[in-house]
Amino acid sequence: MTLKLENVQVSIQAAPILRGVSLDVGAGERMGLIGRNGAGKTTVMRTITGLAKMAAGTVKWDGEDISNMQPRLRARLGFGYMPEDRRLVPDLTVEENMLLPAWANDEIDGRKGLEFVYDLMPELANMAPRKALLLSGGQQKMAALGRALIAGRKLLLLDEPFEGVAPALARRISDVITSLKGEGLSVLIAQSELSHSSDLLQRECVIERGEIIRVNVIDPVLAGKA
Ligand SMILES: Nc1ncnc2c1ncn2[C@@H]1O[C@H](COP(=O)(O)OP(=O)(O)OP(=O)(O)O)[C@@H](O)[C@H]1O
């Protein structure tokens, strides 16, 4: 399954925020979206989830134009989103937070999702009964990644997954994302800095003031084909 954005334009309060963004993420590819604060990374993510309204352009998933599809229907396609600010509910447990997408959407199998997530991140099984407010910032990022994976079995959108996370935990999160390669899952990772690990990303698009100015090929196999 491939994701394709063509000439996507988004304005917020009449100010142009995305000025014709085109990018594609291949099946099973891990793609970076790199840019400074305010460059438009979160707006790209919100456009893909359907939360930001486009003024022009198209979003295609596996060749189908989904530009006008409701966000909850996109979750059913297997899109998972981890927002930059984590958005955990402090009074709910880690497990309840991860089940939220399934509670909101009948077609998402929460139990099956949890099994997958606990298998991938056993540390989340240990944290499951704890209230989210008792977690460190890095642990909250892990829980938010787990939650994104409950719905996101085809396309995972991760907004600054390493920001403010201590190096050991950042390494762990990076390893978890890299280990998804066998799942055929496409991943788009927004970061303000270049990658923490050379095997995390296969390509990265650089965004500046709402425009993709460059695409770097990182994976040596892909680079050989370029
Ligand atoms: N709701 C909003 N109202 C007004 N301006 C907004 C709104 N949301 C985003 N913007 C503006 O759009 C631009 C892009 O924001 P966006 O959050 O997409 O950038 P970003 O690259 O994700 O940066 P950051 O990492 O700081 O979140 C910024 O200049 C921001 O001020």
TrEMBL record:
Span of the signal peptide: none
Keyword Protein biosynthesis: no
Residue ranges of domain ABC transporter in the record: 3-226
Entry keyword set: Amino-acid transport, ATP-binding, Nucleotide-binding, Transport
UniProt-listed SUPFAM superfamilies: P-loop containing nucleoside triphosphate hydrolases (SSF52540)
GO molecular function: ATP binding
Record bears the keyword Glycoprotein: no
Similarity annotation: Belongs to the ABC transporter superfamily.
Name of the protein described by the UniProt record: ATP-binding cassette domain-containing protein
